[in-house]
Amino acid sequence: MRRMFLTFTAVLVAVACAGLSRNAGSKFVRTRVQQGCRRNYANVATARSREKPSLDLICCTGSVEDDGVCIGGGSRTTKTLTSKLAFVIPLAALAVNAFCDWLAGGATPSRTRARWNRFLLYVAVILGRTLGLYLGLNYIQGLVQSEESSNCWYAHLRRSGKCSEHFDFADHVVLAVCQYYAIQVFELCCILREYGDFSRQAAAIASGLQRKPSPTPSSPSSSSTSSSRSPPPQPPPPLRPSPFLSVLPAAAVCAAVAGAALLLVYDTAALFHSRAETVAALVISWFVVGEPLLSLTGGAAVAAGGGGGTVC
């Protein structure tokens, strides 16, 4: 599990680096909607004068000719991940996993306890990201920086009438990494571990049935005596769905949500935050959420045995 978690972390870093390489020193923020546009963005990383603001303004009309900023900022994926569904979507794979395992007949007490522990772990991550890494860091960020002024070329275009903060850590990157990607990767590791345990148990049962000794011929008297002492025949085990099919839907949910989170990281790093802000968000996400989850993948919390403190 630890190696798998590190592999997915490397994928995240590669996607973030791709977004950073596309960022040519730009940072686009939403502005007031202008006539003929559905949305407007301004590149606040430049120092253009008020006389030529059109060079750094983007008008989104909803057509196929829209700029990449319009596509990235107004996509359905971005709107969904940054909506109130952010408190529900990260838990979808866990719910699907529990339901499919129940259908497959693998919902043992130890697995149920492990899933409840994972549910509490994910809720703690979501609340920690919301209260600590979003509200808390935004509050600290406002304290250490001077108050926003209106001495910039785009101030009159914003609803607040003020300039953007000098440093605004990429909270969308923190959201995508902590609340979506890290949880989905951890859940996928647990799903694949459960599938391996399920497959080994099924193989052991099948091997035991194949090695069952056949009855040896004996005399009628001895056979009547042995038949009276032999236990009654056991009914065949019930047919259950394949363990692969029981974990496939949950794994698909993990892959879909993790892929959407990577897309959000890429768009944010490439268009909507400076490179320093994106790197700061990645570092914060790793040390606050990534490293603790990585330690769980290699610690006693995922050891077999189904103790009360297991999460996988």
State mean pLDDT (0 to 100 scale): 80
- Give the overall form: elongated
**Could you give the order of the helices and strands?**
HEEEHHHHHHHH
Q: What is the rounded distance between the termini?
A: 10 Å
Helix count?
9
- What structural class do you assign from the helix and strand content? mainly alpha
Largest sheet: 3 strands, antiparallel
- The number of domains is 1
Reading side by side through the largest sheet, how are the strands ordered?
1-2-3
> How big is the Rg?
28 Å
Q: In what range is the share of β-strand residues?
A: under 5%
The total of beta strands comes to 3
Spans of at least 5 consecutive residues with low confidence:
303-307
Binned, the helix content reads: 55-70%
Strand-helix topology:
Blueprint: H1 2-22, E1 28-31, E2 39-43, E3 57-60, H2 68-74, H3 76-81, H4 92-103, H5 109-144, H6 171-210, H7 220-229, H8 243-272, H9 275-298
Antiparallel strand pairs: 1-2, 2-3
Transmembrane segments: 85-107, 119-140, 244-266
Biased composition (Pro residues): 230-240
Signal peptide: 1-18
